[in-house]
Design a protein that fits this description.
Shape: globular
Helix content: 10-25%
Radius of gyration: 20 Å
Mean pLDDT: 94
Strand content: 15-25%
Low-confidence stretches: 99-103
Structural class: alpha/beta
Number of helices: 8
Distance between the termini: 40 Å
Order of helices and strands: EEEEEEEEHHEHEHEHHEHEHEEEEEE
């Protein structure tokens, strides 16, 4: 175990954790909502440090990030745990792998220095903290991100956005990009389905954008849950109100975990979601978990293709520096020739 960051000691050996927006006040010998942060005699410890449950070399498009080093590889790591309880989680085997602190520690720690070394040796340009919720293994991600930066690597969070402003401020010097899930545009749905709230997620999106972190947003569209035109239009309008060039990834749901009785998101629903994005004025809208359509990047100026994709593979690349190769319009994001 390692002593946690972003907490304060209270009377009667209580520990107030302000890493995420649950703001848990944890009694002695108890765990926070995440199941990996434990109070021992008034000192808060994390069980997630070095406890890797996944480590892979992924295309960065898989995060998904389409405007941050497209065509590059990202060394992707995760520790167990989450601060949400989403019944539709697509990675529930590792994100929900706990019960009141029942984490099984890895046989050997995967140290931050080893992650940075593996990323470089595998030709990756970034390290992604993904699959589960990086906020929950923040101490591990923070030290890894610092060493990754020293080795010329970028850092990426794939997150539910339920962290505090203090957490974002602390990781800011090392965090370059984030894909944030905006699951609903209804606070009651967040409370019912995720055991969280909407406002902290919205605040994280705004704050990361203000701090210069590249942000892309993903919404998993679940039939009968968040697929109304009102809700999808609300999400699209919120993103557009921050920055119309912020990419929105509309992702197809497939039955999993506690939502096995729900069907796949129909194509017409995904098209309707995209229409909501276009109506809101969004420049870049992508359809995820489908093949054959919805993945290409087009110039908002001339409309010609900038990047053509098949799954996570780039077939055509028409960006020169940060400009459209056809009309020289500026393309928002960070681009290098893949």
């Amino acid at each position: 175990m390692k002593e946690a960051l972003l907490y304060e000691k209270l009377d009667k050996k209580l520990a107030h954790c302000y890493l995420c927006s649950h703001h848990c006040k944890i009694a002695n010998h108890k765990f926070g909502f995440c199941g990996v942060r434990e109070n021992k005699e008034g000192v808060l410890y994390t069980h997630a440090y070095g406890n890797v449950v996944a480590a892979n070399v992924d295309p960065i498009e898989k995060k998904p990030l389409y405007h941050f080093l497209p065509g590059s590889k990202s060394f992707s790591v995760a520790a167990a745990g989450c601060n949400f309880r989403c019944g539709f989680c697509q990675n529930w085997e590792i994100s929900q792998f706990f019960s009141g602190g029942g984490i099984e520690l890895a046989q050997e720690e995967f140290l931050p220095s080893e992650i940075a070394r593996e990323a470089v040796s595998n030709g990756c340009k970034s390290v992604a903290y993904t699959y589960t919720e990086p906020t929950i293994f923040f101490e591990y991600a923070y030290e890894t991100a610092r060493l990754a930066r020293e080795n010329g690597l970028y850092n990426i969070f794939v997150t539910n956005g339920y962290m505090t402003k203090e957490c974002i401020a602390m990781i800011r010097p090392y965090l370059d990009a984030a894909n944030i899930d905006l699951k609903f545009f209804n606070d009651a749905s967040y409370r019912k389905n995720c055991a969280g709230r909407l406002k902290p997620v919205m605040d994280s999106i705004r704050l990361m954008k203000e701090l210069g972190i590249w942000v892309e947003v993903t919404t998993l569209v679940i039939p009968g849950q968040n697929d109304s035109e009102e809700e999808l239009g609300g999400i699209a309008g919120f993103i557009a109100g921050i920055d119309k060039s912020m990419p929105w990834h509309i992702s197809r749901f497939h039955p999993d975990y506690k939502f096995r009785k729900y069907g796949l998101t129909p194509d017409e629903t995904l098209e309707r979601a995209r229409a909501c994005g276009l109506k809101a004025g969004l420049d870049f809208i992508y359809i995820g978990n489908v093949s054959g359509w919805g993945n290409d990047t087009h110039c908002p100026g001339c409309g010609k293709p900038l990047i053509k994709r098949e799954y996570f593979n780039i077939l055509e690349y028409n960006i020169r520096g940060s400009q459209c190769a056809h009309c020289r319009a500026e393309v928002p994001g960070k681009f290098e020739v893949p």
